[in-house]
Amino acid sequence: MAGWTGWSAHSRRLLSSRWRLLQQQPEVRGGVSGRRRFSVAEQELKPRRDKFGGVSLHLAQLRSPESLDQAAFGRWLQGAVLDTHTGRVLVVQDKNKTRNAWKFPGGLSEPGEDIGNTAVREVFEETGVTSEFKSILSIRQQHGQPGAFGKSDMYIICRLEPSSFHINFCQQECLRCEWMDLSELSKTKETTPITSNIAKLLLYGSREGFDQIDISMRELPAVYTGLFYKLYHRELPENYRNVTDMQ
């Protein structure tokens, strides 16, 4: 592949993994639409090196959302990056959308990637802002979404805390990106319904305490030796954490 030798080992691994994920033989998919599904090679997707030094295959080049292979379909995540000192939240407008509404940055989770890591990575890739995962704020479940292969769509929004503030957004994906006052985002009509609702939730949390809205994470040992899992739930009060005998 042209230019391969000039890329970093990380970039080669990233491209290789994404290429394996998407590289499928063309086939006819049954179901409601019965439309033909095209492979990556057939549609001549061009891998690109982004401004952060990574390599990506832009799924927007596919002819339709339904041309995605089922193996490439994963959960969507967004990261609500809130600066608690200024009361501003990071928002973007997607490029090439019919309605350029404000929303939180986000994207698809990679296979084997934790929820918080996906949110942090996607926020950085879209905006250039680094952040730390704090909690899950909400989960949207949707059925019958076109292009979801008959699967229920899980859409997770996380609360993130910024560790940098300079915006250097990806112009291939975003039309605009800015730090917006949280109260303004909760009132504006230039946003998506889910963003508006989460903005109100964040406003409540910033005033009354995030313990009122956070779904926090704990890592616990699995029943399988050497394995761990992440459990997400509302924070337990201290006097309930080590209770062995409840009345």
Automatic annotation (TrEMBL):
Provide the family line.
Answer: Belongs to the Nudix hydrolase family.
Role according to the record: May contribute to the regulation of cell proliferation.
- What protein name does the entry list? Nucleoside diphosphate-linked moiety X motif 6
The protein's superkingdom reads Eukaryota
Q: Which organism is it from?
A: Notechis scutatus
Q: Which GO terms describe its cellular component?
A: mitochondrion; nucleus
EC category: hydrolase
Q: What is the lineage of its organism?
A: Eukaryota, Metazoa, Chordata, Craniata, Vertebrata
The protein's UniProt keywords, in alphabetical order, are: Cytoplasm, Hydrolase, Mitochondrion, Nucleus
Checking InterPro entries in the record gives: Nudix_hydrolase, NUDIX_hydrolase-like_dom_sf, Nudix_hydrolase6-like, NUDIX_hydrolase_CS, NUDIX_hydrolase_dom
Q: Which residues form the Nudix hydrolase domain?
A: 68-204
Give its localization: Cytoplasm; Nucleus; Mitochondrion
